[in-house]
Amino acid sequence: MQTAPSAVPPEPQASAASNQPPSLLRAMFAPGTPMLWVPSGYFAMALTYMMLTSVTSIMFKNLGMDNGQAAQYASYLILAYTIKPLFAPFVEMYRTKKFFVLCAQLIIGLGFAGVALAMSLPDYMVVMVFMFGVLSLVGATQDIASDGVYVTSLDAKTQSLFCGIQSLSWNIGPIVASGGMVYLSGWLHTHYFHHQAGVFGPEWIESWRIIFFIVAAITIVAALWHMRVMPDGAKAENAPKSVAEAAFILKDSFVTFFQKRDVWLMVSFAFLFRLSIGLLEKIGPFFMVDPVAQGGLGLSNEMLGLIYGTYGLIAVLLGSLLGGIFVARRGLPATLFVLCCAVNIPNVTFLLMSIYQPHDLLIISAGVAIEKFFFGFGSVGFMIYLMQQLAPGKYTTTHYAFGTGLMGLCMMVTGIVSGHLQQSLGYVHYFWLVMAATIPSFIVTWYAPFHHKD
């Protein structure tokens, strides 16, 4: 599953705008409105993240990698996003946050174009994986700087006003990447280049080369747009002035983090809440496209993009909206275990599909949509818990990033091993393992401490 946008709890002391509460219409349509850059900025962040950490796994499989290698290599690319709190203080030290956003987006755009060109080389896979690794570091930097522009250019009231737009814009990225780009790769492969859909190998290079050129163009256009409309972003009041000061802040943030009451219970919650989802994230799409004879459903990339990357992600958005309403009405302490059940129990749809291997696209779409809807519904509780219980303190933003980093670490570790486990067990037994992996999530949620007011 995709991660949530890396939005951070607002820190009013970093505000650079007016303290007067803006009206909805005035804020959205006034000259220099954040509507000019918040949607495009968070869409660009999400597009980069999903192309690197999710879509690459499908591409690797299309090019002939087995499930173990495809999931492993794609999961390694999550590492940079997991450790970005370690280099975030250093981004604060130099130039402006807008400068880092523009540089990152230009490098990402040129990098994806470079990947497309590198696919013509004899040893293209080695070069491509290396370039993806570099781009993941640049993408993590883009996230840090974009969040910095958002937090320091808008006051707390405006941040709250644009929070929904920010989240919606980020979630359009996965729909375009995992839905649109995967669909287009399959359409090009079968209808433009006239290759057989279910056969994996080098024939897929032509289609994926076009996809990477398209993503490169989108990212470069975003950079040029943000050059005109994005504010510079103010420096936070506690921004480090030297490398030594940045290192001290980073060290102090670690020390104070582990001094929190019941910190290990909260760490366990942050790492284990999505354990079963981590095992399902890469293997779910593989299950969709693998031949029926190998235990899969035999779908084309076009159907995968439509069902898994479009219908499924729309279900995530709807589930997230309703989950937020559910938590707002009843409070997090009363709902957290229910939300954990929502995240984990619907994984059974993949177990049932692996047993019966349905051919009806309506049944397959319903199975995916159910799992995704309840994942979105329940994941709201996870993010709110990090904001309300794990993050508060001297370094609210950094400690929130530690929590999301732990989630990313879980996604990376489970992703690395998931393909190899699936190859050893087969799909039916593997999805039984996924269901067993829900047990730790229930345990850590049941014992998750609440020390701050809901």
Furnish the topology, listing elements before pairings.
Layout: H1 24-29, H2 38-62, H3 67-76, H4 79-82, H5 84-91, H6 97-118, H7 124-153, H8 156-192, H9 205-229, H10 243-257, H11 263-272, H12 275-281, H13 283-289, H14 301-330, H15 332-344, H16 348-356, H17 361-390, H18 396-436, H19 438-446
Labels describing this entry:
Growth Hormone, Chain: A, globular, 454 residues, MFS, 74% helix, mainly alpha, membrane
Question: What can you tell me about this protein's structure?
Answer:
The chain is mainly α and 454 residues long. It has a single domain, classed as Growth Hormone, Chain: A (Up-down Bundle), CATH 1.20.1250. It has 19 helices and no strands. Helix 6 packs antiparallel against helix 9 (205-229), helix 14 (301-330) crosses helix 17 (361-390) and helix 15 (332-344) runs antiparallel to helix 17 (361-390). The radius of gyration is 21 Å and the shape is globular.
Structure described in brief:
It is found in: Membrane. The chain is mainly α and 454 residues long. Helices cover 74% and strands 0% of the residues.
Report the radius of gyration as a whole number of Å: 21 Å
The top-level CATH class is: Mainly Alpha
Distance separating the two termini: 27 Å
- Shape type: globular
- List low-confidence stretches: 6-22
CATH fold-level assignment:
Growth Hormone, Chain: A
Total number of helical segments?
19
Quantity of strands, as a count: 0
CATH superfamily: MFS general substrate transporter like domains
Strand content range: under 5%
**CATH architecture term:** Up-down Bundle
**Count of spatially separate domains:** 1
Largest sheet: none
* SSE run: HHHHHHHHHHHHHHHHHHH
Structural class: mainly alpha
Q: Which bin fits the share of residues in helices?
A: over 70%
- Please, what is the average pLDDT? 87
Subcellular location: Membrane
Keywords: Membrane, Transmembrane, Transmembrane helix, Transport
Membrane topology: Multi-pass membrane protein
Protein name: PAT family beta-lactamase induction signal transducer AmpG
